[in-house]
Amino acid sequence: MKRLAKWRLFSLFAILALILSGCGKPFVSALQPAGEVADMQYDLMKLSTIIMVGVIVVVLLIFTIIFVRFRRKDDKIPKQVEGSHKLEIIWTTIPILLLLILAVPTVATTFNLADVKEMDKKDSKALVINVRSHLYWWDFEYPGQKIVTSQELVVPTDEKVYFNLKSMDVKHSFWIPAVGGKLDTNTDNINKFWLEFDDKRSNEAGNLFYGKCAELCGPSHALMDFKVKAMSRDKFDAWVSSMQDVKEPQKAQTDLAAQGQDIFNKSCIGCHAVTPANKMPETARLAPNLTNFGDRSRVAGILDHNKEELKNWIKNPETYKPGNQMTGKYQDLSDAQLDALAEYLMGLKVQE
Amino acid sequence: MHVEEKMTYETWPAAPEKSTLESKNKFLGFWLFLGGETVLFATLFATYLALKDKVPNTSQHLAKDLFELPLTFVATMLLLTSSLTSVYAMYHMKNFAFKKMMLWLGLTVLLGAGFLGLEVYEFNHYVHKFHHTFTSSAFGSAFYTLVGFHGAHVAFGLCWILTLMIRNSKRGLNLYNAPKFYVASLYWHFIDVVWVFIFTVVYLMGMVG
Amino acid sequence: MSTIAQKKGFGATLWDFLTTVDHKKIAILYLIAGGIFFLMGGLEAVFIRIQLAVPNNDFVSAGAFNEIITMHGTTMIFLAAMPLLFAFMNAVMPLQIGARDVAFPFVNALGFWLFFFGGVFLNLSWFTGAPDAGWTSYASLSLHSKGHGIDFYVLGLQISGLGTLIGGINFLVTIINMRAPGMTYMRMPLFTWSTFVASAMILFAFPPLTVGLTLMMFDRLFGANFFDVTMGGNTVIWEHLFWIFGHPEVYILILPAFGIFSEIFSLFSRKRLFGYSSMVFATVLIGFLGFMVWAHHMFTTGLGPVANAIFAVATMAIGVPTGIKIFNWLFTMWGGSVKFTTPMYYAFGFIPSFVMGGVTGVMVATAAADYQYHDTYFVVAHFHYVIVGGVVLAILAATHLWWPKMFGTMLNETLGKITFWFFFIGFHLTFFIQHFLGLWGMPRRVFTFLPGQGYDAANMISSVGAAFMSIGVLVLLYNIIMTSVKNVKVGNDPWGDGRTLEWSIPSPPPFYNFKQLPLVRGLDAYWLEKMEGKKGMTPAEPLGDIHMPNSSFIPFMISLGLFIAAFGAMYQVDKVAWALPVMIFGLLVTFGSMFVRSIKDDHGFHIHKEELQEEKGAEA
User: Fold this and answer.
1) Which residues of chain C from 68 to 107 reach within 8 Å of chain A, CB to CB?
2) What is the reported pLDDT for C535?
3) Among partner residues C165, C173, C218, which is closest to B141 by beta-carbon distance?
4) Which of A194, C332, C415, C503 could lock onto C274 through a cystine, CB 3.0 to 4.6 A?
């Protein structure tokens, strides 16, 4: 008896834990919206869920009554009923009304989310970011600020940020679950939309959102993550100007880093840029821009940000991101060379 | 009525193409098949319209540079006339006039072959004069696929009608082969209708630009 | 030929099935082939769930995982669900309308062999690298994909798609032309109605797929540029073509499932289907609307708010006829005398499962919110609730319901119920939690996930559910083997409550089905006669000669030719010397066989009145 009670308590806790975790992690869950777009979508979710749960309850009620009352008890033949016009009209009209209740906000929100008129205005102050997706990495260009960064999107909070989305190889899809729904990056055309990052809730989520690729794009589709750093407008402006200050590749600080820079200039610079004002045409930007690599929170978008993981990655990218475009583009590096290279790359910072 | 029965002018039914259950099924089934074919061509038309004049660089030719009215007009006339001759053939089939039917079918085949010849010449012309090929651009792929699919239908139709004519040349009409002739002529009409759309959408609208 | 099955050797039986044009035998072929593909697709699903049970798992590699998900989707839709439904359509629909066979027995066999060879071709890709761009095979990724995987997909589906198309035409003509005397359209059983509507949808939905696949084939194998953006191509065309086919396809699958459940609810409640005319109307309406909503699969493609809003509202509209159906089923049982047999278990379990899939369907139809759901596990959960909770439950229900009619022996009821409970619990365990995974930000088609995002426990639960479903299927297999070994024969109407014509004739029926065509006097024709105390149907014609089609090996040859040609077409792109000759040889086999079929007269044969009377004597 006592053991049973214990089990009961345990299962109660288990259920409680499940309910508490029912909203997911704040930096990656659509159920913990942290911006205007995600809010609107969350509202639609709630509205549709309420309506739908209502429908399910009605069906289950009838379902249960049937199960209890109309099981076969004897061999009598029940009355053969053709139908009922009254009932049929009821269950035609009520769903139509319910769907209308849902359709109106759906249409309104759909148009609202597609409103990017601000982007086409002349002298618009709005922040525009060009997102270009590549096989398993993301490129972010700020055309107004004339800077490029990769893998980690930096955005100001509490204002609308506009995006131009395009893919450079195969179709991907740009998604920051906690902040808003996704939009595909097509190979054929540029898609546009906007997002807004709420300052307070960004703080609660640790100011670092997870972004994902949502369209199957090859072996490492699952690993095509990016991160979003949300910060106040002031901090954002400071970040932009410190990025803009990097006119020349940063000088290495230590001897080891200087060796690393030499290696980098021999083996890596063909694809990776280390200045933010990337003047090359879009199609020639073959790999992530590393100007502020030292400031980032992940190596290759997925690994912990430390020298060890960085060396592992450079040594054998294929084990971490199968099918990536970096494997085999450079000669094997010795451990000493890797040390130097990691030292150099980790020193590429624009912020203190 | 029985399929293997020896028929005469007197016993020949008014609608020999659907006088037995089998032939009724064939008649209806073929109409449904043509419904599916219509969707197939509609899809190809949509693809063509989406990719019309979509070329990788400006040195390539567009629809308005390629098409010439006289050639396609003659081709159109040939195919339209062949549709008419197949109507005559079916008229004679219904009247149990085997020889006349064969004559008109023969004419249909000749006209169809003429059309096909012109199409081959036309494609050849585009490839050599304009370097407009199946692989040169999305426009080229879409053009040759749409018009080529139709051309393949014409070729298949010709083979089909010829096979029927040769197979039945010695034994005349009966209720077993009458529906076969009829269905083949339905197919031929369908090809003709599709061509009317190709002529309008691809050639006339293409020349306008 | 006309004497009823004597003991035959294995070779003779095999030859019989290779050449048969009998709809009942073709149904068995579809059931076996579809069943095997279902097991393969299921095995692939198990691999997926093992890989995703824990984060950072390396049970399979990333590339192999993409091959597995692609083959799982493609196999389940094209090679398992459709053929299994075709099996029941073939087995039952001609009997339900009182016909001796389908309209085109030859074409029926051809349809099966095309499907079969297409499916085998597709699965042979496992030896050299399977397709890996998802069952949707979006164009940019497909063109980027190395090796021959996508070519297997494109060619295999073209071959099997042709089979489905002609199968659809065949069913349409059968239903229009071959109904028994008195069987008006509004007296047709709901399963026949849904076969009719699904076949019409096949007729209009498969050509766009064929075109899409052909264009992809031209691009990959013959240098065309339909989807090559640098040459002026456009990949969104593929998305449109695929979904113009793909969405109706969902209804092609679910409508026959609705038909099966309509039969079961009515049969085991001993009640006429509630609101028969509105059920027919809803079926036709769903079929029609099914063609108007394809772009809801492309809400995030960037078609613009106008298109998204229109397609959102159109999609929601489908909820209405579907709702009508749910309530009609409930009220069919209401006031009835409901017997909980295995098929009824499935039908009863179907209601909450499918309602769940239906309401999440409305949720994903709300375009603006779908930007969150799209391409996440929420969508995976949604369509598995519809396809497994609807179609697969229907297939399992139909297997138990019509097994005695197809094989003359009843599947074990206890084992059937055990199967149900394992499958049903496993199904909800696997897929319910996936709704939340999607909302928590987990995209679909990921070969692994990183820890620390809150996905670990839920994925484990989902994988455990998959194990339950597998046990259910294994119990079903055991049931089938045991039943076949015991082989206890049953009579015409083994459930005792049969309402439609198939229950008025022996199980399994003689190869000519009806000695004399029955006279149909209303909906649920057999039930009507039983209620008036009669033992069987009143014949509509005197006993006479029956005309039957000849068996033929040509369907097999036509399909085999395309199968061979596909290999040639695929390898000619590698400039292999044998490829082009093989392709030409294959096409020659196909067209040669068609030519032979065309010039060789085939009048069929007659079963004479005397033989039929003799059998009558033997029975008595």
Assistant:
1) none
2) 87
3) C218
4) C332
Class of residue C313 by CB neighbours under 10 A (exposed 0-12, middle 13-18, buried 19+) = buried
C585-593 contacts: CB < 8 A, separation 24 or more?
C586/C561, C586/C562, C587/C561, C587/C562, C588/C561, C589/C557, C589/C558, C589/C560, C589/C561, C589/C564, C589/C565, C590/C557, C590/C558, C590/C561, C590/C562, C590/C565, C591/C561, C592/C561, C593/C554, C593/C557, C593/C558, C593/C561
Is the pLDDT at C456 greater than 70? The verdict is: yes
Q: Do chains B and A touch (3 or more CB pairs under 8 A)?
A: no
Interface of A with C in 46-75 (CB under 8 A): 48-49, 51-52, 55-56, 59-60, 62-63, 65-67, 70-74
Q: What is the mean pLDDT of chain B?
A: 92
ipTM attached to this prediction = 0.94
pLDDT for position A19: 58
Name every chain A residue with its beta carbon within 8 A of the beta carbon of C451: none
Taking an 8 Å cut-off on Cβ atoms, the answer to whether B25 and C601 are in contact is: no
Task: State the pLDDT at residue C440.
Answer: 94
pLDDT tens digit sequence for C245-285: 999 999 999 999 999 999 999 999 999 999 999 999 999 99
Residue A111 Cα, gap to closest chain C Cα (Å): 5
Q: Is the pLDDT confidence value at C6 over 70? A: no
Which of A21-30, A144-153, B117-126, C148-157 shows the lowest per-residue confidence on average (mean pLDDT)? Answer: A21-30
* Interface probe with C: pick from B47, B61, B62, most Cβ of C within 10 Å: B47
Nearest CA in chain C to A191: C302
Closest residue to A110, CB basis, from C63, C308, C355:
C308
The reply to whether residue C453 touches residue A28, judged by beta carbons under 8 angstroms, is yes
Residues 6+ apart with CB under 8 A from C151: C217, C220, C221, C570, C573
DSSP collapsed to 3 states, chain B: CCCCCCCCCCCCCCCHHHCCHHHHHHHHHHHHHHHHHHHHHHHHHHHHHHHCCCCCCCCCCCHHHHCCHHHHHHHHHHHHHHHHHHHHHHHHHHCCCHHHHHHHHHHHHHHHHHHHHHHHHHHHHHHHHHCCCCCCCHHHHHHHHHHHHHHHHHHHHHHHHHHHHHHHCCCCCCCCCHHHHHHHHHHHHHHHHHHHHHHHHHHHHHHHC
Mean pLDDT score, C335-346: 94
